From TrEMBL:
Coiled coil: none annotated. Residues 92-352 form the AB hydrolase-1 domain. It holds the Pfam family Abhydrolase_6. The keyword Chloroplast does not apply. Keywords: Membrane, Transmembrane, Transmembrane helix. This is Alpha/beta-Hydrolases superfamily protein.
Length: 370
């Protein structure tokens, strides 16, 4: 064996091992980079929502509702209730909540015919942008939706002033109207309006206390929608962590009264597919991003829109509401004494559909009854 050894053989073996080590180290670096790029590409794709299916386009749902054309070319679909607007004494615009549409006008659909005809009430509900048959608004803000409502009223000929009512996330929209179009309002009503925990006027200790009363999965979803909104679509479509409970209809978010009232909403199944037919992102996800994002104003800084007592603002809230906690509404009503606050003992979030409540609410708004 020694005879077969030649000078330089060990150096050659050592040289080959070094190159072998460098080769595999470089190969693993390349594989790692490729995998990382692939992972980033997958993550980016996972956070990107599919494009909306616009109503009336070749690939979108058909248009079946009456619609108006807005200043920027978008369309708003609407539905009229009550007496004809030409003979109406009171005209009300109703704003629906999260994952709802123009058909979910709880005040209109639960109002007694006697009251409608006796007071001459006309109500119009509409699909907010991205819902139902209203075009999405990729530039939507709190202000833009208030201006949409004003334009809807103008296109329908509702006059210089009209009443405004909003439920849940639709109630939150009313704050924007009180800020940007108060001169157009004859009165306003907020029904269990959603509260943004990051409004500056809310005491941090109170908002934190209420925030932690939510289910853990909802705490995380709200953090995501506020701090990293571009990730919110992925958060609600991935399967690793529980998404926002209100979107999955988890029973834990309903009070005992809510559970008793849910059968009254059975007719919603007839039109449920229409609500998000243009896509989840431009309806419910953008809704949450706007509602719980950083607002350009603080509702707790608003002045009384009716300093001459020629109108009124009412806030109705159930004290057993597990979706919109009552503690924050109490603080808001205390901070804004020009709001007439009505708290319903034992009531949950769905109290507007309870028998007789709609009549009482509307009488308070239109007639000042208590």
């Amino acid at each position: 064996m020694l005879a077969s050894w030649k000078p330089g053989t060990l150096n050659y073996l050592h040289f080959s091992q070094e190159h072998f080590t460098y080769f595999f180290a470089g190969m693993w670096r390349t594989i790692t980079v490729v995998l990382l790029i692939g992972l980033l590409a997958w993550a980016y794709q996972a956070t990107q929502p599919p494009p909306p299916k616009i109503c009336g386009t070749p690939t979108g749902p058909p248009v079946t509702a009456p619609r108006i054309k807005l200043r920027d070319g978008r369309h708003l679909a609407y539905k009229e209730h009550g007496v004809l607007k030409e003979i109406a004494k009171h005209k009300i615009v109703f704003v629906h909540g999260l994952s709802c549409c123009r058909h979910d006008a709880v005040i209109a659909t639960n109002l007694s015919l006697e009251l409608i005809e006796g007071l001459g009430i006309y109500i119009v509900s509409f699909d907010r942008p991205g819902y139902g048959e209203s075009d999405p608004d990729t530039k939507r803000t709190v202000k833009s939706l208030a201006l949409d409502i004003e334009e809807l009223a103008d296109k329908l000929g509702l006059g210089k002033q009209f009443y405004l009512t909003g439920f849940s996330m639709g109630g939150q929209v009313v704050w924007g109207c009180l800020k940007y179009i108060p001169h157009r309002l004859a009165g306003a009503m907020l029904l269990a309006p959603s509260v943004n925990y990051w409004w500056p006027g809310l005491p941090s200790n109170l908002s934190t206390e209420v925030y932690y009363k939510h289910l853990t999965q909802d705490q995380w979803a709200l953090r995501v929608v506020h701090y990293i909104p571009w990730l919110f679509y992925w958060w609600n479509t991935q399967k690793w962590f529980p998404a926002l409970s209100v979107l999955s209809g988890k029973a834990d978010i309903f009070s005992s009264q809510d559970l008793r009232l849910l059968p009254k909403l059975a007719s919603k199944e007839l039109y449920r597919p229409q609500i998000k037919q243009q896509g989840d992102y431009e309806s419910i996800h953008r809704d949450m991003i706007i509602g719980f994002g950083s607002w350009e104003f603080d509702p707790l800084d608003l002045d009384n829109p009716f300093p001459n007592f020629d109108g009124s603002v009412h806030l109705w809230q159930g004290d057993d509401d597990r979706i919109v906690p009552v503690l924050l509404q109490r603080y808001i009503a205390e901070k804004l004494p020009w709001i007439q606050y009505h708290e319903l003992p034992g009531a949950g979030h769905m109290f507007p559909v309870a028998d007789g409540i709609s009549d009482a609410i509307v009488k308070t708004l239109l007639l000042g009854e208590k």
